[in-house]
Give the backbone structure.
Amino acid sequence: MTVPPDPVSPPLARADLDRRGDERETEGLLSSAQADAGSRVLVLRGDAAPLADADGSAMRYSSPDAVAPGGEWAFLGRDADGAAMLLAAFPRDADEPVEAPHGWGALRAVGGGLPDFDAGVFVEGLSLGRWLLDAPFCPACGTRTETIKAGWSRRCPACGREHFPRTDPAVIVAIGSEDGDRLLLGSNALWGGNRFSCFAGFVEAGESLEATVSREIHEEAGVRVRAIRYHGSQAWPYPRSLMVGFHATAVDDAEAEADGAEILQVRWFTRAEIGDALEGRSEIALPGPASIARSLIASWHAGAA
């Protein structure tokens, strides 16, 4: 019997792909895996991958010889049977690099409904693929770099520097009321309508995660918080974030006030209102199922915060 995933755990944190980082130093690993018909390739065009079925509940992997020439290749790891899992990343405007009879799905759209293995491969491949496509030049001297370590590093032939994929840590926070019966959410200026979510922001230089939580919440929502509690984390390659989720409790509910710039509205929601929104019975739009914001909200609603 298949056990369904925990609905309140971060959806893209449940990966079970063996990354086999020890193999990346193996000479010729990538070329030999590309020549192996048993290798499985995640093909990406922009942030979308081919789907294995019409409802987007699984991804379609390709054999290396079925992929169009070009793209950026990398070794992602091995599946349970030992087959190499490869990435072939193409720009969004590239011609379709592989047949996709059931269409293409973006991570943010389908990631929350994928099996753990597919979700892990997708978020790893997209995070690495974005870097391979977007950062081909040495940031120190501007020379085009050479890809090494099976796609996980770039070396500059001019100055000798070695570069690695960048990850920017950010916090995202669900704020409970003093009595624990309400949840504070905000509506971003870029969204419009009735969409509400948790509060988030990037970690600044020399700042701890806990300090970031307190600063960002006060800046965006006006409240002071206490009882900061870790929930979980997941990669979010839009463009290169590690989202670290927390629950926190407001010191004074009445302090809640939108900053008026990034956040246009803040609102306290009852548990019943959140339940209706999670079930689609409300005009309030919550974050999609692939986001850690959704799992934070679901966790609070379930009383697991």
